[in-house]
């Protein structure tokens, strides 16, 4: 069966099934692989057959899909029993039978293609040839009949030509800034500009088809800026022990200072144009101030919801003095050491308190365990005393009328004796037929022993027959292996159809013998049960 499985798997791969190289037998197949193989074969046999090759995850959809495959196989003439259970819960034997039937139904062109080499280069050449043949045989469509270069080919939309393509060109687009932060103060003139004069984003690019590229470019720049800020804050901002606002303010101050120094040095070098440079410096200072104000407003407007809530809650604490920036490194180091010392002192106090609490907890746990044990012991004593009290109370209640209670007790004893007598009589009435029935069944059992002896002899004969059939099967298998060896020794130029047919005949004979054995097994099992 391994050679048959190898031929089946190779043919299925040529049909289009993407099985792994580790799959060498149908034993490695799963329900999803069987469904994919059947769908690929049915697509080749029936060009109009439309069904997905992958099995859905929903169980009801699996049932419907497998039922559709079963109906298609029955329409092709499959004689065996087939249903959705054949694909989902069947055995390897049923899968092999079904796949052999579908492979026999494949067109001759598909079979010839299966005999060809299956390398990646040959597959690529065949696909290129098929595409070129389809393009040559298809009718010519004028360009004005193709909207955006799309045309319908064999039920699928394909793009032909470059009518629907254009270059990726982006332009600068702007959107209102700072409107996301309700605590930010935006001037009325700016709001009026946003509401009355600023154009919508789709209308800002000169060409309308550049809107998407412009939006993608703006989003990419914002994402890159945010990622750069997060990387800088995680590497440098956290180590500075400053808040984000303080870190941004210090960074802006350093940038302004650096630009001012560079501008001053350039002004000193170019003394000939000092007046013009001073005017440019004042203009540059104004631009820097506006740039820093705009940057701070943009930072406030691009915060998260948690940051907005925190700003609203601590709005009065926004007046952070800039004197922190003027502190020297020595003062900062001294402050850090003082903070570390105070924190260590607090840590030691909390550690002592924690140890005291842990000791108290252990003592309380021990006392609680003792109290629970005493409670359980006292509960058992209470139950015993309650039982003794109930007995004594009942006895005390019976003492005032001792004679009357004795008479009632005797009546109860006499009634119990009468009931026992009646029950024994009823039991004898039931016991008699049961004993007779037991004797009859015993005689029948003794008669069956002889029948079982005869059946055991017949079982022995059937076993000998099974051994003969097994020997014959082994001979057939050795003959099959011999034929496979001869087939491998033959030249590759000969057709494999006759050898495949011979292998299939041998497999059919083996299956027929197994069916004969299967028909005799129920009889053997029935004899054993008797």
From TrEMBL:
Keyword Cell wall biogenesis/degradation part of the UniProt annotation: no
Gene Ontology terms describing biological process: positive regulation of ubiquitin-dependent protein catabolic process
- Domain (CCDC22 N-terminal): give its ranges: 1-107
GO function terms (MF aspect)? cullin family protein binding
- The source's domain of life comes to Eukaryota
Which controlled-vocabulary keywords does the entry list?
Answer: Coiled coil
Which residue windows are coiled coil?
Answer: 333-360
Q: Which residues form the CCDC22 coiled-coil domain?
A: 126-521
The reply on keyword Coiled coil is yes
By sequence similarity, the record places it as follows: Belongs to the CCDC22 family.
The name this protein goes by in its record: Coiled-coil domain-containing protein 22 homolog
